[in-house]
Batch of 2 targets.
Target 1
Amino acid sequence: MTIRLKKNPVDIIFSSITAIASVSVLLLILGILYVLILESYPSIEKFGFLRFITSTDWNPVKGSFGAATNLFGTAITTVLSILIAVPVAIGIAIFVTEIAPNFLKGPIGAAIELLAAIPSIIYGMWGLFTLAPIMANYIEPALQKSIGSLPLVGVLFEGTPMGIDLLTASVILSIMIIPFTASISRDAFNLTPAVIKESAYALGATKREVVKDIVIPYSKVGVFGGVVLSLGRALGETMAVAFVLGNNHQITKSLFDAAATITVTLANEFTEADTDIYLSSLFYLALLLFVMSFIILALAKFFILKTEKGIKQ
Amino acid sequence: MTTAQVRKLKNGIALTVCTIAAFLGLFWLIFILWDVLVHGIGGLHLSLFMNDPAPPGIEGGGLRNAFVGHLIITFFATLIGVPIGILGGTFLAEYARGRKIARVISVLSDIMVSVPSIVIGTFIYAVIVKPVGHFSGWAGAVALAIIMIPVVLRTTEDMLSLVPWTLREAAFALGAPYYKVIIHVVYRAAAAGILTGILLSIARVVGETAPLLFTSFNNSFFSANMNEPVSSLTVTIFQYAMGPYSNWHSQAWAASLMITLFILVLAVLGRLLLAWRYGKRPTI
């Protein structure tokens, strides 16, 4: 559907304006990348890449910076939140597409998506004042008593449960990303051709067998895309974790210790950076975060598009 | 047990687990909303909206500065972000329809929607705050506008694509140039959808904190001057919640309640509009 009309001068102007507006997205992405590289250049020059990401030194007084503690915090909270969220989210998607009676499908799906509308600062407030005490008083001591006495994994649950730690932050993050994973999984499940499902039911398959042997094999790439998208979201989440992580620049053994993620460090220290190299290192962190999340989100988009295309053909 | 019974049992267990998962999701939603409501309602007094903050530790005082500041920042962000988003979406759905550039920008916008908002904050700090030399409301508004653009752009593109092509052909046949067709026919047909996009994009940015931390910063005094640091509700909530005073906490909860209510109303309104007009739901 290409449009070949006699060009009206106003039309040329209007189309150029719209073209500029849409290219602004591309320019913004390139601009962000350029500015972040430019601003972090002093730090890149001083610390290099490998040294920066492997150094655990975060010392504003000595002017020596490394991102390892931040990367560690980001990786642990993200992976842990995905581990908690994905099974629940897939359960929700199965419930909404296959189990719920028709009149409940819409409302329950919409209600869970409303979780995504709640701003992250509210999650942070709730996490700090409500969830953290619950974690510190009930859940973490219980975990310590049960799994904490086991060999090997026991070390993850050592220390005094304070509620301001990696575990609480991961739980909050997992609640935040459930709607993303659930929503995309649901869309992927819905793309399964009804005829194939009906054929399986006609052969006498149970619902569980239809989901396990038909729906999930059909939609696994899409569901995976949803998981990767949630990973990208969790990676860049700031306020929800800023309240409950404590900004502690250490690599810790226990999940009951405070830590720092890239985002939390930025939120807490950006306005306090008093030296150029300090600020530059913070920009370096932002650059790392931007590049990582961009790659992860692009991958997610790739998987999601692939499912949609694959089913259409 | 026979095989059939085993299969039935497995089926029953699997279905129960999934149902529990769904109710767990609902449980979190209700838990959080209820908690915000219970804590927030105690702090809701008229003084919250009428007074500026009192010095720390002194009772009384409100968040008038933050409410007004938040409103101004969001207003200007909408003013910058929405036109760019709508025009950009128009290009993708109309002039560049079916071309490779439209696909590329569309995918890039989808990625931009999920890029960490704190990165946008650092970007604006580098390009506006640092050259100007101080934090300002404008910087905050631009940061929020950057977050809005891809959201509005993608919904506009989707909504314009839903308008039947024959409608445009009918207008072309009357001799209308393309820009007139877009403005008088396509925009009108897609008005409800575009409005939904705007509502959802406002809902998206109104709760943002991270991009405001180092752009509009905070201001304990009343200021409607966009060239100065402007107080916002979300940054104030962060500062108050982390602070030691209990009346700060109760004000932070009250502000959280107001923001949550505002966003939920917008989100529900947007959803109803989409369901009513198109029978579909927004992509999150």
Target 2
Amino acid sequence: MNVAPFIRARRLGKVSVDTVTLAHGGGGKAMKDLIDDVFVTAFDNRVLAPLEDQARFDLAELASHGDRLAFTTDSFVVDPLFFPGGDIGELAVCGTVNDLAVGGATPLYLSCAVIVEEGMSVDVLRRVARSMAQTALEAGVQIVTGDTKVVQRGACDKLFITTSGIGVIRKGCTLGVDTARPGDVVLVNGLLGDHGAAILCARGDMALETLIESDCACLHGLIEALLTAAPGIRFVRDATRGGLATVLNEIADASQVAIEIEEAATPLREQVKAFCEILGLDPLYLANEGKIVVIAPPDQADAALAAMRAHPLGEGSAVIGQVNHGEAGRVTMRTVFGGRRIVDMLVGEQLPRIC
Amino acid sequence: MKYLDEFRDGDKARVLIKEIEALVATMTIPAERPLYIMEVCGGHTHSIFRYGLEGMLPKEIELIHGPGCPVCVLPMGRVDDCVSIAENPNVIFTTFGDAMRVPGSKKSLLQAKAGGADVRMVYSPMDALALARKNPDREVVFFGLGFETTMPSTALTILQAETDGIRNFSVFCNHITIVPTIKAILDSPGLQLDGFLGPGHVSMVIGTAPYEFIAKFYKRPMVVAGFEPLDILQSIWMVLKQIKEGRADIENQYARIVPDGGNAPALQAVSRVYELREFFEWRGLGSIDHSGVKLRDGYAHFDAEQKFAIPNLKIADPKSCQCGEVLKGVIKPWQCKVFGSACTPETPLGALMVSSEGACAAYYQYGGVKRYKEAV
């Protein structure tokens, strides 16, 4: 096993039973074995290795990436744990990496706190940890500290993960939700709504079978390419829960501008459209885990689009609308039909219509 | 998407709008008010807003959003009954999604769920029956809701449960029927409706014959309409043409789905399982004779009203709420005293604000409360 020398120097614990029990959260040997077996072996890096109560960083090394720290946190409670196109572990890494990246930060270090329901399979936990490790490796970030709690059956749903992340913001980068100006252009990096549709299908409640996969991906590479090619970009946000519609409303509200998007230009997969037709859902509100909304000043829109399209995670990038002088805070959509409708914030959860 | 995109073609829409404008130009429409056309069905209301149709029509035509959203006309007392059944510890209460947020006098089903009741969203009554099979030691109750559109699927599920000998399944039947309701609207004093867009999916089950009285006795034209935007525009054109020619007929624009004679097997299942109630309470409209159905005595063992002690209290709508006047087309949603202030989709007072098919929610979501308040 390829573990850091410091870890190799001591004997790693091993879990010999199949399922997690309350004993694994008790602070004793069982807990140490679980942490070693599942997390330490998977995450394996120099900062984590000493297993201190905190990860320690060299300030000069951090400062070499930029001039401000970015710090974020996010919890992941997705059901099911494994779904087409990803799993909770991959999601927990991508989600926090993206939350750092959309602020113009280079993501560097993550924490990983897990709450496990007793009775959970140790093997499933190992799979999730390996998935986190693999995603972190590909993203070039390290998981450097963590925590494990086990709760009684019913006190949580199988497994909850919280990741916090530290990144460093490049010098001169001042992205802000309140910076959109009339004339600016709205871009997205590809097909919308895949994650939300994939999760709803995977739950099985709808008894619909589709080939839709989650778009879960770490987007910092794409965002770096975008900001390099078009340094005047005003704002970037990942369109997760609440989908495209929610992000656009947040921008319109904070910047006190109107935004109009074109239905015909908004990229949607045929299967996602059909899925929404059948269930009476609006794809503009479906969650994404690998999609960003970008506000670009008009003179950099072409450069932004070209840079996004040149990146593997942005091949389907498109200009979908414009910021304008209309009623402040209002988002509208020009429908394919030639009408215009208001795209408001979602109230509560999207509930399917009955007829 | 095949069979959908064809009916959402913007170029064809522009041609149709021109046709409608040309037709209106040849009609003599009194200056004091526009022509009022009511779309009976909530599905139509949803499409009209989703595609921005109101803004495309000439000002001489105004659409009135009718009572055809089953979630919207559900009285508070019935929601209380649902909550009371759902809070029974041995019950799994199953419901269509958009009924979850409808406010009862104390709470909605969503709030009951948060309080510990086992309330689950299903897509079909058959999903509820499958839950009953999977949980033989629990009583699974399905909240039967909707017009003739959903009535047959509930009936067939009960027949299936009977065939399979499933005993832990029951239906809280709140199915309602559209025809007496249209009649009640036509009988209401001060009525100003010039024509109707008929409900497409209800008609798929019952056919077009049950509407004949509208043309014959009330002399109003009706066109049974599909739900895509081109369907709706074409149906509006057909209603206008009838008005212009001084005709009042029942026409069928949605013939690709609606057979004039309806769906015989569905109707058989309906008449086997249900009988008319003497009357049924509608939110905003009050009690309407013969407007609801219940399970026949032969199926009493599947009837949640027989299996559970149900409070069955009549709860008056909040005084400030003007859902009834909106439903009858007497006022527009934004003319209601509480629209957008005390009554919003987040804290709905009236049921029209709850479902996305409700006229008030549609105006609020797609129309923007500010715009309408300013227009008043």
